[in-house]
Amino acid sequence: MPFAAHGDIIATYHRSYLILTGDWHVSFHYLSPSLFFTICQIVQALFLVLCNHLLPLRDLLYWKDSVLASAAFWLNIFIRNQYAHRALFLFKLPYLIFDLATAVVLFYLFERKEERTIALKFWMINPIGIFAVYVFGRYETIPIFLVVLSLYCAKTNKRFFSFLLLGMVAMEQYYGLMFLPVYLAILGRNFRERLSFLIVGSIVVIRDLVVGSSVVVGRTFLESPFFNYLLAMRLDVTGQQIYVFVLTYVLLTLYWIHTCGKEFSDLWKFALAALLVFYATCSFHPNYFAWFTPFLAIAIAKYPELRKLHLLQVLCFVFYTFYWKRPLAGWLFASVDPSFFLKLLSPAELIDFFYPSSTIISVFRTILSGISLYMVLILARSREGR
Q: With contact defined as beta carbons under 8 Å apart, do 276 and 373 qualify?
């Protein structure tokens, strides 16, 4: 926690500091209105109040003239501050708190002690979560906690709160919207109830459509990078295009709705399957790969055959990160010794001496897609009564 960081953690805490000081209007030109005054940013801003007497926050996080600067620029300034290690440790503490809170909620999702133990062990030592949160330094444990809490509310028949939490997830990370169709099919009892739940669960999209980008100069959901990732893989058909993720997601959703009962397992299985389809067919940032870990914790506890497949996923993911070269290699530990780690060659650059790294990365990316789709098939076959 004190030594590893990507520029993203500095950037997000910079935005939170601007909220704290009331200078949010100097923030970034590309900032989406759906991503500014969110729970994650507010949690971080409130936490900075506690850190105010432990860190020189203005020296660490305020650069008014660097609005258009890259995350690498922020990192380069940050790591040279004498308080950098203390700051990195403290900045990640809220993530650790939500991480442990997620483990508590996962505990109550199981009835069998053996499954509960396996799930918690997986959750605490999974390398994907450790990398995304404590090395890469992203706040993924906060929306993940909301997702798991939403599952718990669904299991305990607190349906309104389940959709409310899912909508809050979508305000942090748009992937929460993927789960809505099956949530509505399973938890909604009639058309009127499903309509009200849909409004609650998709409030972020409604806000984008109604308010647009007038809150902050930024992008709506349809203009966001995440939406473009969904459309990255496409097939050309006589001058038109078929988007592979949209096609596979629609097929998956229709199959689930057509065959699902009212079982709790259908909720988490669909969420996991939808994210696996996303990883198989879309571009995604490395921190996105943490999104499916709570659902996978449940699945691995119940279906041991998924464990070896996930180990292969982790191996492929390591090669996938090579695509970002130095920012996801030596730069992650630049706070330890900037002069050494900022100049350290990345694995991709080392591979390039012998063979084009882009080919190697693409091969492992393809294997990752194949494994993910195979896991979807396992989930589909494992559903109750089939």
A: yes
- Cβ atoms < 10 Å from Cβ of 272: 24
Q: pTM for the full model?
A: 0.90
Whole-number Å distance between alpha carbons of 345 and 363: 21
Look up tokens 């607190």; give the residue.
158
Q: How far apart are the first and last CA of the chain?
A: 45
pLDDT tens-digit profile of 247-306? 999 999 999 988 877 788 889 999 999 999 999 999 999 999 999 999 999 999 999 899
Q: Which residues contact 125 (CB under 8 A, 6 or more apart)?
A: none
Distance between CA 343 and CA 187 in Å, rounded?
53
Residue 351 near residue 325, CB atoms below 8 Å? no
- Residue 139 phi/psi, 5-degree rounding, is -90, 35
